[in-house]
Here is the input.
Amino acid sequence: MKLTSLVVAAALLAAGGTASAQETVRIGTEGAYPPWNETDPAGNLVGFEVDLGNAMCEKMGVTCEWVAQDWDGIIPALLNGRYDLIMAGMSITEERRQAIEFSDGYVTDPAMFVAAADSDLISAKSIDDVKAAIEGKAVGVQGATIHQNFLDQEMSGLIDVRLYDTQENLELDLASGRIDAGLADRAAWEAFFATDSGGGFTVFGPPLNGAEYPVFGEGVGVGVRKDDTDLLANVNAAMAALKADGTMKTLSEEYFGYDITIY
Here is the structure.
């Protein structure tokens, strides 16, 4: 991709201006992880990251083009040139850094266990409580995520891990009783609780984050190919501007009900 206009945009951002040159930047997202990103009934990609990405592109003086991509192929598709950036609630981890680079982290949200509100599991408060209560249970998690990595690292052999291709399918099995608990970001669960099938469920155990468990990474960042250094610099400049002017906080509160911005 030609990045001349993006370099100009970065320089103008630093000076407090906007770029007039236009270029299309393709952004890959899953479209199945509300409120981060989802697909509406009309087939449009919507959500926190879509609005944030559009605001980012406006700061950069470029046009956004959104591309839906299944989660398990989201990094290979970036490397193969299907799109230029990833914005999909993707946490910054050392494992992923072996393949791609990340922008500065811009938001963070803890992971939480969830079970039926009438389950014995919900009395578990500490992680040791959780391990004792959950032993032998079936726990659902989306595959190829930091949440799966946490279960593999901390609870291998202790539980029956069930892997799902999407958060929605995990929630369907949780609601139907085919699994005993699930693990995902707090915000994803809040979206589930707001549905008819999620009303009888609640979180249990402690919030899980990268400060205590490095497997959860350093917050969510924009994924970019390692050699696209000019594009990365431009993304960082735009995201910093969106933090400074309050746009990121406003969108966070709109979609999550609280501020998850990293300052």
